[in-house]
Amino acid sequence: MAGVGRNMVAPLLVLNLIMYLIVIGFASWNLNHFINGTTNYPGVAGNGATFYFLVFAILAGVVGAASKLAGVHHVRAWHGGSLANTAASALVAWAITALAFGLACKEIHIGGYRGWRLRVLEAFVIILMFTQLLYVMMLHMGLFGNQFGAGSGGYGAGDHGYGAGDYHNKGMGTGAAATRV
Predict the structure, then answer these.
(1) CA 37, 103, 108, 22 torsion-angle sign
(2) Which of 44, 71, 105, 140 holds its CA 20 to 30 A away from the CA of 88?
(3) Which element (helix H / strand E) includes 141?
(4) pTM, 2 dp
């Protein structure tokens, strides 16, 4: 698990950031035309699930892009404290993206005419749900992989002088036998 490093997280971070920015663009354009009542405009149309999908898609895009900014900070700092913040924000972004994914599937299932911009948005949300899940899994492998060491804010006991286990429990861990009396 310690093999998850900057070289693996950074490209996925950049890919997801670009995709979230594209989702923001397409969702805001579609939502603007949907609110203005120009659903007969080529590229909008939709069905009963379209409005809810657009709202959750733009929310997922904004939260996901903000989460990627925390990810950029983590890639630059690369220590346990920034990892916890990045993993938490990435998990929230994935949860909202999963909601938008569900609504995209519902919109596809209902059917009807959907313009190319709406279909592109659906495709990006579906792809982002899986790439964001991969990103969250990579971050959590780093969170539980103890790769950052004890002195850098990670979760290991290391050089703290407490013995086995983590430094929060002061040696109440893996159980090396104590001295005999």
Answers:
(1) positive
(2) 105
(3) helix 116-144
(4) 0.76
Helix (H, G, I), strand (E, B) or coil at 175: coil
Residue for token pair 């920034």: 82
Per residue in 59-100, pLDDT (tens digit) is: 999 999 999 999 999 888 888 788 888 999 999 999 999 999
Q: Let me know how long the chain is.
A: 181
> Helix 116-144 and helix 80-110: axis angle, to 10°?
150
Distance of CA 40 to the CA centre of its chain: 34
Q: Which residues contact 14 (CB under 8 A, 6 or more apart)?
A: none
Surface-to-core class of residue 150, CB atoms within 10 Å of its CB (0-12 exposed, 13-18 middle, 19+ buried): middle
Identify any residues that bridge with 114 across adjacent strands, giving them in sequence order: 45
Q: How far apart are the first and last CA of the chain?
A: 40
Tokens of 177: 């036998």
- The partner residues of 45 in beta bridges, in order of sequence, read 114
CA distances from 142 to 23, 52, 160 (A): 28, 35, 21
